[in-house]
Design a protein that fits this description.
alpha/beta, three-stranded mixed sheet, 4 helices
């Protein structure tokens, strides 16, 4: 029965809260299934905006959060076995927490609908380079930053 389900989709989805897209995993999926991978969830957060938790991916501030976005996104775009990467959510979670208590700084916008300028600028820079990265004309952004321990 499981193999019948495989006929119904053409891309394999994973969530990946790593510093970069796990290239070995996407290569393995492609070899095993003959299909590319899409990242269904990823994000980075920081504790410098007044929320009680950062998010699963944890950085010291918004500047490093923006750099982490560029590192992850551009690495995904340059990976021939990855066809997309979906940032987890548009808005930060409420300081009071959602139904399960999460109160993460993981949005492009805060709870008052204000954009995080560092993150927004980083995304625009990366998105402008996306096609050249995918074609191998440019190398992905890869500035060294300090990743703090994950929340799990």
């Amino acid at each position: 029965m499981g193999s019948q389900g495989m006929k119904s989709f053409d891309v394999f989805s994973i969530n990946s809260y790593t510093e970069k897209v796990p290239k070995d995993v996407t290569e393995h999926i492609n070899k095993m299934l003959g299909m590319p991978t899409i990242i269904g969830e990823w994000h980075f957060g920081a504790l410098d905006v007044g929320l009680p938790f950062s998010g699963i991916g944890h950085l010291k501030d918004q500047k490093d959060r923006a750099k982490a976005y560029r590192i992850y996104f551009e690495d995904a775009v340059a990976n021939p076995n990855c066809v997309g990467a979906h940032w987890f959510t548009l808005y930060d979670e409420s300081a009071l927490g959602r139904h399960d208590g999460e109160a993460y700084n993981i949005g492009f916008l805060d709870v008052c609908n204000r954009a995080y300028s560092d993150l927004s600028q980083a995304a625009m820079l990366s998105h402008e380079r996306m096609y050249d990265l995918a074609e191998g004309k440019e190398k992905p952004f890869d500035e060294e930053i300090e990743y703090l321990p994950k929340l799990f």
